[in-house]
Design a protein that fits this description.
The structure holds two protein chains of two kinds.
Chain A lengths: L1 H44 L5 H4 L5 H16 L18 E9 L4 E4 L8 H6 L2 H11 L1 E3 L2 E2 L1 E2 L5 H5 L3 H8 L6 E9 L18 E8 L1
Antiparallel strand pairs in A: 1-2, 1-5, 1-6, 3-4, 6-7
Chain B lengths: L1 H10 L1 E3 L2 H21 L3 H5 L28 H20 L3 H18 L6 H13 L10 H4 L2 H9 L4 E3 L2 H13 L2 H5 L2 H5 L2 H7 L14 H24 L6 H18 L4 H11 L5 H11 L6
Antiparallel strand pairs in B: 1-2
The chains are: A alpha+beta, B mainly alpha.
């Protein structure tokens, strides 16, 4: 018995020694493919979509391979590899706020998150969630919320997120109006006594209504 | 075959493990700090009644490994997960069962990242990267609790002249320099970076800087801002290229460390991201030279 156990252990050890370089090579290869995927293929070639979506009309075998690619490389890249795409983006130069007007509720100024939300997240998730998250986090007064944001496209997300907004407002709004306002930071030469902590948000950049 | 050999020579290295242990110690301390700082917001961010407004199972099929916190039904269990994470970070610092601790911390990080994406910042992404690759690195050869517990053992650690084979170090280093390189095109397309006013604008935001509206960066037509912005661009452009040359490695690491620690000091909102990058940069230090340098400082004779 003892002899057999020793032999089995030795055989397993030999097997591990033999397989280990392949595992290491696979991991390293996957790493570099995932980096390439997350930083080049996904943002520029696939425009943020999974490969399976791009090959929806292709034959079954191609779709199967595309799904396998998405699972192994696309999703795998999210486990800690390759997700550094545009990690730290330029700092916003305008302070912005978004105003949600619900007809049945008081005016709400909603804080919008900053450049931390990557373009990838913006595409894949409802930004209204982010809005409502900041709504709770960055409350300054009962109906005013301060935020910063660049390249903000609330209409894209609001149109799909009315239910959630309704839930947050506590009643179903007949309509929502979103207004983006800002307090632009002056250029260094024009700064004078301007102070970000007392800046007045008075420039309407953009307005959108959902009926 | 030649290509395979070249790839193997690039990836598989025999290195002095001293700096790997230092990296483990600092990574553990960083993760511990991360969790301690998260304590006041733990339930608020990730708890059952927390602010993640998406339904917990909405994303269940989306990820390869589902976030474990989607399946948690009580705050008590959330605190249990928190306690295990703190204990794992301490074990990682001490070098006790560190690989098991790393595996837990990595999966916990994945769980947090996808448990509530709206509180994710660069730090979770860099931490995920460091934890994943660290799993495959021999980090237990130096700076363990046992080695640090007596003067004799500390001296022995500084004298130990061994080498270990690593294959996960180079991919991790490549990945870290990509963090700089991939952000360069965006920066060069942004006039604040090219005109040198980036630091001024960053300091004038309300929620980024530790001291919003710090006047000194606007003096002399933002002269200080122009110097700091140019330094930042130069580091991010040059360090990823020059750090691979042996003689330039230490100056590159020091310059990048100065950049990250400076940003962590001035910009509150990105402190943890910058500290994570600083921890990652330790992996570029020449291990043997660092060990000898420390030995000289501590008056430990090296044969």
């Amino acid at each position: 018995m003892g002899g057999r156990r020793v032999a089995t252990t030795a055989s397993m050890r030999r097997w591990v020694v033999r397989v280990r370089p392949w595992l290491a090579g696979g991991f390293v290869g996957w790493t570099f493919v995932a980096i390439l995927h997350a930083n080049v293929v996904k943002p520029y070639v696939l425009q943020g979509q999974p490969l399976a979506a791009a090959t929806a009309d292709a034959p079954a075998i191609v779709r199967g391979l595309a799904s396998a690619y998405d699972a192994i490389v696309g999703r795998g890249a999210k486990l800690g590899v390759g997700s550094v795409w545009r990690m730290y983006s330029p700092v916003p130069r305008r302070l912005r706020a978004v105003r949600f007007d619900a007809l049945d509720a008081e005016d709400h100024w909603i804080a919008v998150t900053g450049p931390d939300v990557s373009p990838e997240h913006r595409r894949e998730r409802s930004l209204a969630d982010a809005l409502l998250w900041d709504f709770k986090r960055a409350r300054i007064s009962d109906n005013f919320f301060l935020i910063r944001y660049e390249d903000f496209l609330p209409w894209l997300y609001l149109s799909t997120s009315r239910e959630r907004i309704t839930r947050e407002l506590g009643q179903p709004p007949r309509a929502l109006r979103v207004r983006v306002i800002s307090a632009p930071i002056p250029a260094p030469a024009d700064k004078g006594d301007w102070d970000p902590t007392t800046a007045v948000f008075d420039r309407i950049d953009w307005e959108y209504a959902i009926q | 075959m030649t290509v395979a050999r070249a790839v193997r020579r690039f990836v598989v290295l025999d290195v002095d493990p001293f700096v790997l242990g230092l990296f483990r110690l600092c990574l553990g301390a960083y993760v511990l700090l991360f969790y301690v700082m998260l304590a006041p917001s733990w339930i608020y961010y990730y708890g059952v009644g927390g602010i993640a407004s998406c339904d917990r199972f909405d994303l269940g099929s989306y990820q390869l490994l589902s976030s474990m916190i989607w399946y948690v039904r009580s705050d008590a269990v959330m605190w249990l997960l928190y306690g295990i994470s703190i204990a794992s970070a301490i074990l990682l610092v001490l070098g006790i069962r560190w690989r098991l601790a790393l595996a837990w911390l990595w999966y916990m990080n994945v769980s947090l990242m996808f448990g509530n994406v709206y509180v994710v910042n660069g730090e979770e992404q860099v931490m995920g990267l460091l934890l994943l690759f660290a799993l495959f690195l021999p980090l237990g050869a130096s700076f363990t609790w046992r080695q640090l517990s007596s003067r004799k053992r500390r001296r022995a650690m500084l004298r130990a002249d061994g080498k270990v084979r690593v294959w996960a170090l180079k991919p991790l280093q490549v990945h870290l320099v990509l963090v700089y390189l991939l952000s360069i095109p965006d920066k060069l397309a942004d006039s604040a970076w090219t005109h040198g006013t980036l630091v001024y604008y960053a300091m004038m935001a309300v929620d980024y800087p530790r001291w919003p509206g710090l006047d000194v960066v606007s003096w002399g037509n933002a002269a200080l801002s122009r110097v700091l912005t140019a330094f930042s661009l130069a580091v991010e452009l040059l360090v990823p290229l020059l750090v691979w040359f042996r003689r330039l490695r230490v100056p590159c690491v020091l310059a990048a460390m100065a950049l990250h620690l400076g940003m962590a000091f001035l910009l509150e909102g990105v402190m943890m991201f910058n500290l994570a990058m600083a921890v990652g940069l330790l992996l570029f230090l020449p291990s043997r030279r660092t060990r000898h340098w420390l030995a000289r400082r501590l008056h430990v004779p090296i044969s």
